[in-house]
Structure formats: C-alpha cells, structure tokens
Design brief:
Layout lengths: L1 E3 L5 E12 L2 E12 L11 E10 L4 E8 L5 E5 L39
Antiparallel strand pairs: 1-2, 2-3, 3-4, 4-5, 5-6
Length: about 120
C-alpha cells in the first residue's frame, strides 16, 4: 500500500511473505519512505529510507529489523539464539528462606521527603 502525506512524502508498505529466521517462521514487511526535495534539511534531491521488519507470530516478537538511510548507513536489530524448549523448572522454584508474611494489623509506610532547593 502507498500513502502520500500533505508534504509530499511517499510511504510504501509491502508484504514480503514468510521466511525462517533464527529457527522460527516469520512474516516480513518492507517500508519505504521517499522525502521530496527540500523537505529535509535542504536536500536538493529526494531522500529514500527503507526498512524491513520480520515478526515471529509463534513468539509474538520481532526477530529481525533493518533500516537503510540515505547516507548509506544501515541499522540492524535481531533476536538471536532462540530456544523454543521448555525452561528448566528449577527457574520457577521458590528460593530457600522465602516466606509469606500476612500483615493483619494496620501499618504505615514512610517515605523520605525530598529537600527543596
């Protein structure tokens, strides 16, 4: 889909399909933005930025994102070392010495008052 904003900036959003990334199935979208000449800090030609985002629905998380800028720089964020195995049950054990305290009587919590300058 394409959208042109009032200032002439053109935004395009394109579906890229499915792909396996970091061992999980993900769907991708490509975003392209073209800024018209004169719209960004005196640019004399249109400036184009592009980006891709890949989402793993199984995880509900983004697994890969890239952004390419007009100056040639590229940013990349990725989820790595994905492990879909069940976590170790020991991670969910109550630690030794932990105890639940049931406060039956009224109590007050006092916070320090910051000094005024």
């Amino acid at each position: 889909s394409t959208f042109t904003s009032p200032d002439g900036t053109v935004n395009t959003n394109e579906y890229l399909g499915m792909q396996t990334i970091s061992g999980v199935s993900a769907y991708g979208r490509k975003f392209t933005t073209v800024y018209p000449a004169g719209s960004r800090m005196g640019n004399d030609k249109p400036l184009t930025t592009t980006g891709e985002t890949w989402w793993a629905t199984q995880l509900g998380e983004m697994v890969l994102s890239t952004d390419a800028h007009p100056d040639g720089s590229v940013g990349k964020t990725s989820l790595r070392d994905v492990n879909l195995a069940e976590p170790d049950p020991a991670l969910f054990q109550i630690p030794p010495g932990y105890r639940v305290v049931d406060e039956a009587a009224a109590f007050t919590i006092q916070l320090p008052v910051p000094k005024r300058r």
